[in-house]
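Good morning N.,

You mentioned wanting to compare the apo and holo forms, so I went ahead and generated the holo version with beta-D-glucopyranose. This is what I fed in:
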Amino acid sequence: MKTLFRICSIVLFFGLSFLLDCAYPAGEIPLYKDAGRTVDERVADLLSRMTLEEKILQLNQYILGENSNVNNIGEVSDTFIPGIGSYIYFNDNAVLRNSLQRRELEVSRLGIPLLFGFDVIHGFRTIFPIPLAQACSWNPELVGQACAVAAQEARMSGVEWVFSPMIDVARDGRWGRVAEGYGEDPYATSVFAVAAVGGYQGSDLSSPRSVAACLKHFVGYGLSQGGRDYEATDVSPQALWDTYLPPYEAGVCAGAATVMSAFNDINGTPATANHYLLTEVLKEKWDFGGFVVADWNAVEQLISQGVAADKKEAAYKAFAAGVDMDMKDFCYKDHLGALVAEGKIPVARIDEAVANILALKFRLGLFEQPYAVELPEDERILLPYNKELATKMAEESMVLLKNDNGLLPLCAKTVAVIGPMADNREHMLGSWTAHGRVEDVEGSIYDNLQKEFGKKMDFLYAAGCGFDGDDRSGFAEARAIAEQADVLVLCLGEKNAWSGENASRSTLALPAIQEALLQDMKKTGKPIVLVLSNGRPLELCRIEPLCDAIVEMWQPGIMGGKALAGILSGRINPSGKLSITFPLTTGQIPMYYNTRQSARPFQGKYQDIPTEPLYAFGHGLSYTTFEYGDLYLPKDTIRKNEKLRLEIQVTNAGNFDGKETVHWFVSDPTCSISRPVKELKFFEKQFIEAGTCRTFYFELIPERDLSFVNAQGERFLETGTYYVMVKDKKIKLELID
Ligand code: BGC
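and this is what came out, ligand included:
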């Protein structure tokens, strides 16, 4: 609809602009340069003045600087391509960008500014916890604020477009990119998608603190076969509509400026050549008014995916399917002209794509302010507020998985801090660290524990072993300090590069050397607190029984050490809950909470291991005890078009103040199509002082919360019995006409 309107305006204004152009006395500004006009008017006017060649150049993105994505060949490019639409900008300040922008505006006939994009996944320079961890905070407001900080740092450093948020629902921890998303649940991912878009874009894209967001990777990429990156995905239409599309629809409704088409082949058609998904669903059904960019080299990759014989055919397929901008491979630059001349691509489609891109440039205010202000570092990055927020985000995203006999908070005289992660700052950053630097990480776990406890506790340190390999020579030293301590804090985990793009693993287990270290330390008989830093759910079945307490700190970013020390000391009461299931073993994959009903729920179990996960979705302990009252429903029958306010009281019955997240689930036991055993419909986190109680509300709207989509994406609401569930509380609800 928006695109249609834009095209109509284009047609209308085509003649008008010509007249206006002639009407402008020399020296007067053309209409598209008049900030007082609407974006659509300006786009239409500018488009009417452009040659086909100028238009096609706008549809390409190239790179500038040294590529920090190791998977995309670390080439350095300073190639200046006059008239190109966009660059990926790898520098961390605005100087180079501005010089390029200046050069562009000097040579550009119409003065169309360049658009600079970059991968800002969990922070630009102030690195926050990885998104998977952020989701464990169940605090969308905080996630939005973290994105706003990233936006401020990026925009003030010369980037106005971020390739984020990554909203691929992912349920296979072997896939390295599980770290980049918000976990296994479509509703939660949708909520965080909306929060991230709001945080990045703010209320005004032209603000020097806002950037355009990009929902990626559209769509189904999270279902990579066997967790192997870039593989084809097979997604049933039902699962597509139920699980993989909803976060994108939510992000589009929230006004995301751009969408990135995915690498994967989906059901036989690569996502980058998928007309049904890109045009029929995204652009037509959802009325997406922004533009679609291909993932890196994804247009050219249509050749390796076997649907295009050469770059020209690849350009044709991607562009005809709905991809507006070609990232990096110049298939569009080199071939769209010929495709138009041959009548294969209508000029109207070129105009539509260019209009989408120009509209964003206008909305970002680039025509009025093409240059980023060149500020000194201390005015744009790592600002005190940014670090404070990164600390808060880390505190809220860590998950206390186990705490037998109240071992935590730590109460001891001497603590041995052992393991490859104990005094390591580098791997706290996680994958996709944008411009984050190891020296920005404010201390290792060991450093922060000493700082947190001061003279109250003695800390001894030994690495014991590396992250992998089989060198056990450090075990003896670790054993020696363990013998002197009252409690052992074992810090194990994954290196940065073990998750993220092109970082699949065949197992969720930690390398054998790390498990062996823990097993060896167990021989001391001392209580063990296991601290984990990783970018995916882990297989803990061999080591979990050896530990008294386990804290999942994830890859927590630059302030992670401080946040963890606060949790271990009890200054911070942990409040994170898992956004993804921790299977007992890798062999249980796929394992997620909202599976469909089994034909024989009482049979079909594994013969060799339990069928339950080790830690379920939503699991997370606190230092206090939250007691749930009964679920209250004002009436047990609801009509369509009615709303019902459900409530539950939660009492903090322990001695610590704390935050609790209540998850509201719905199930539909009998329906014309089978539904998952339960589905998350709402969540809320509240602070509850010790000894007090809080009421949590869920306003249930049948059309939103009890309906379902079929395999064609049509939404239905059926009368009948439903259940609403919170923890182990379950209540019946009848929906009538
Ligand atoms: C990744 C994208 C990223 C792009 C640009 C690709 O390899 O899949 O997520 O935005 O590179 O760096």
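The domain at 384-584 is CATH 3.40.50.1700 (Rossmann fold).

Happy to go through it together on a call whenever suits you.

Best,
F.
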